[in-house]
């Protein structure tokens, strides 16, 4: 028991000694050195107040002497002492004692010249500082001011006040005044400047590093704003500040305010978060390249942070719409994440494996099209690879380690392409779209124009100069549906027994009745043809400048009249003018909410958008060219040959000179490209197909677009789904 007590006492003693030793160590660690950092002014008359800054001033009782003469202390803290130059003091050294130690502060000169205070004590280049003191006047030469040893321009002077302008790049240092050979050094001026920011663009939450000098040591003493909106200062480190872009930020200059002095820096541009449109491939080995396409990326590579399953990848190159990334080791399987200047977006899942698909060429087409799949890890033996298009197996024509040539299957539908090799499966970065152009018939005349498509997929097309209407079945069989070639007249009847004048417009109703606008010897007429081919008159006696036809959901017909505009024809045969101007027979379009679209002049790259319910008028297009974007600034070629509403109530625009079908989304007012082809004659995928002039357009219930192509004497079909 005695031994146990002894052991316990020894243990407690050791613990107590450890605590005492730790306290000693802690006390040693927080000892503040006794040192002087600055003092000012270094000259003046008796009674001048001198400020001494530093640390460790209050170890005991502080005292100050001027060349041996003790001075009156006015205030004392551990870091600042304010003392009055004694009446009987002499020029010489100032000494400071903290009760246990003493040191030399610097030299003090008794003279009339004295720099006692400056205001403001900080600021950027161009700041005008007031220097308060004595002895600044001279009959010999004006006072000279230096800041950190560099000359500053004096803009006004009196015996007690100087105003000087801070020069560019002066840096921080004391303010010195020279008069008649005398020199007085005053308090330091803190020069402040912003030399740059990174990044220079972003949005809410972006961390921006501000490089410069003269920042306040405490974060709260640096007030940073982005075009007037104050931001949080997260870090201060010597020559930089790190700030968080605030909510509600707008583009404009960044500024830092310290002690009321504002430093304006570079502009910060607010950009939206990035958008990922494509990641290719979705699987592959480490070290391979990945392409990320989208928009609103930074062109500075290191401002785009890409991680795959939380493993950071190297961004090799960057543009605003494309990043090239080197795949890192150890990715495994996980999401692709992109953060552009702290604005994140999530991409698809990536799998680290040897098998991967980089691209499909072409990326759209119809059944029976050859497609080259480029990637990695394929077997050179075609039988060891399985390729499916949206789940349907395709025929493999040839194979290498990096390419597979395949034939699209007969029952092709839009969807992903997958390659399977043994246990590995790779998916294409984009879907293969069942899309392309096919010729319905190339046995048409050279004067084909207006066309419609019925519910069974039969196409009806007018031959304007030869005065008849053809029918083309889905199988491509062509027959004359109504009228007789090269005849002229005004005769109702059935099929080829009817006679027409020049046909300018066709429109279809929900019962597959066709309405025809024509001009003959008797003037303008609107006729009706039933699905059985019976021709009757809807309205006669119209002017001989009647043009195109369209129809709204209520069954009202709309026809154009040269130079007089667009007229609405009600079922009771009463008509009214609903738009005052058009000079063409180009097909107009009307939406389900009564937005009317009219081509005023077929040789101008513009058209009208008239909202009949509100009478609002918008001019779509601006000048000749090719550019998507807002309706007012989109560019079209020199001829707009047809307008048509699609099944989603977007406007399709036949941009004839650009060999394109453009789309205007009514809800956003944005113009985009639905189909862009090239001139000539070729079927196939949309990037390979060619066509001639677009005379008119029609759309079927599946959303496929039919085009009358008189240059190639053909009816063409564009499949988009």
UniProtKB/TrEMBL annotation:
Keywords in alphabetical order, please: Signal
What CDD domains does the record tag this protein with? IPT_PCSR
Q: Could you tell me which PROSITE patterns the record lists for this protein?
A: PROKAR_LIPOPROTEIN (PS51257)
**Where is each IPT/TIG domain found?**
33-111, 112-192, 273-353
A Pfam family this chain is assigned to = TIG
Residue span of the signal peptide, if any? 1-22
Sorted alphabetically, which SUPFAM superfamilies does this protein's record hold? Answer: E set domains, NHL repeat
On whether Signal is a keyword of this UniProt record, the answer is: yes
Q: Which residues form a coiled coil?
A: none
Protein's name according to its UniProt entry: IPT/TIG domain-containing protein
* Organism listed in the record: Chitinophaga varians
**Lineage per the UniProt record:** Bacteria, Pseudomonadati, Bacteroidota, Chitinophagia, Chitinophagales
């Amino acid at each position: 028991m005695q031994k146990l007590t002894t052991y316990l006492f020894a243990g407690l003693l050791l613990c107590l000694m450890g605590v005492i030793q730790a306290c000693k160590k802690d006390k040693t660690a927080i000892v503040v050195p006794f040192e002087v950092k600055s003092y000012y002014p270094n000259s003046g008359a008796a009674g001048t107040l001198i400020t001494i800054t530093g640390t460790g001033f209050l170890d005991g009782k502080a005292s100050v002497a001027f060349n041996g003469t003790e001075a009156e202390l006015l205030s004392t803290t551990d870091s600042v002492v304010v003392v009055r130059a004694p009446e009987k003091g002499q020029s010489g050294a100032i000494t400071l004692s903290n009760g246990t130690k003493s040191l030399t502060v610097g030299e003090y000169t008794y003279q009339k010249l004295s720099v006692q205070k400056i205001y403001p004590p900080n600021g950027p280049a161009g700041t005008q500082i007031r220097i308060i003191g004595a002895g600044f006047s001279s009959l010999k030469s004006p006072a000279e001011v230096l800041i950190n040893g560099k000359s500053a321009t004096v803009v006004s002077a009196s015996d007690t006040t100087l105003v000087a302008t801070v020069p560019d790049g002066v840096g921080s240092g004391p303010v010195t005044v020279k008069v008649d050979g005398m020199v007085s050094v005053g308090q330091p001026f803190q020069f402040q400047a912003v030399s740059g920011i990174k990044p220079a663009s972003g949005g809410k939450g972006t961390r921006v590093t501000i490089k410069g000098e003269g920042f306040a040591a405490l974060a709260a003493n640096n007030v940073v704003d982005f075009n007037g909106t104050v931001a949080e200062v997260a870090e201060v480190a010597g020559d930089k500040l790190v700030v968080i872009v605030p909510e509600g930020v707008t583009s404009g200059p960044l500024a830092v305010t310290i002690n009321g002095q504002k430093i304006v820096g570079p502009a910060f541009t607010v950009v939206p978060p990035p958008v990922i449109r494509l990641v290719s491939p979705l699987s592959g080995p480490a070290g391979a390249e990945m392409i990320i396409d989208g928009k609103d990326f930074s062109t500075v590579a290191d401002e785009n942070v890409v991680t795959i399953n939380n493993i950071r990848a190297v961004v090799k190159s960057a543009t605003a719409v494309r990043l090239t990334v080197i795949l890192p080791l150890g990715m495994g399987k996980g999401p692709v994440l992109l953060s552009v200047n702290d604005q994140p977006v999530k991409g698809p899942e990536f799998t680290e494996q040897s098998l991967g698909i980089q691209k499909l060429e072409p990326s759209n087409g119809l059944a029976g099209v050859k497609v080259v799949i480029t990637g990695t890890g394929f077997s050179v033996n075609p039988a060891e690879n399985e390729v499916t298009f949206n789940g349907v197996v395709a025929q493999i024509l040839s194979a290498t380690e990096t390419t597979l040539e395949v034939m699209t299957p007969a029952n092709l539908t839009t969807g992903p392409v997958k390659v399977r090799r043994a246990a590995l499966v790779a998916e294409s970065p984009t879907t293969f779209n069942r899309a392309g152009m096919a010729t319905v018939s190339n046995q048409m005349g050279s004067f084909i124009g207006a066309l419609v498509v019925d519910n069974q997929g039969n196409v009806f097309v007018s031959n304007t100069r030869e005065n008849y209407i053809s029918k083309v079945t889905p199988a491509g069989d062509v027959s004359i549906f109504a009228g007789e070639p090269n005849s002229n007249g005004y005769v109702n009847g059935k099929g080829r027994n009817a006679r027409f004048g020049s046909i300018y417009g066709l429109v279809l109703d929900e019962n597959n009745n066709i309405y025809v606008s024509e001009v003959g010897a008797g003037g303008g007429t609107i006729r009706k043809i039933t699905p059985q081919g019976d021709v009757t008159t809807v309205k006669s006696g119209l002017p001989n400048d009647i043009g195109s036809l369209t129809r709204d959901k209520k069954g009202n017909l709309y026809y154009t009249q040269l130079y007089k505009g667009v007229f609405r024809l009600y079922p009771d045969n009463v008509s009214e003018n609903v738009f005052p101007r058009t000079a063409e027979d180009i097909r107009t379009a009307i939406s389900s909410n009564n937005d009317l679209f009219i081509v005023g002049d077929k040789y101008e790259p513009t058209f009208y958008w008239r909202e009949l319910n509100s009478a609002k008028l918008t001019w779509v297009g601006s000048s000749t060219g090719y550019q998507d974007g807002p309706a007012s600034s989109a560019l079209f070629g020199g001829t707009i040959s047809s307008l048509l509403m699609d099944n989603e109530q977007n406007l399709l625009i036949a941009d004839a000179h650009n060999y394109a079908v453009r789309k205007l989304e009514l809800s956003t007012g944005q113009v985009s490209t639905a189909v862009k082809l090239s001139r000539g004659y070729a079927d196939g995928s949309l990037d390979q197909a060619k066509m001639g002039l677009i005379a008119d357009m029609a759309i079927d219930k599946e959303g496929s677009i039919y085009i009358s192509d008189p240059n190639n004497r053909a009816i063409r079909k564009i499949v988009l789904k």
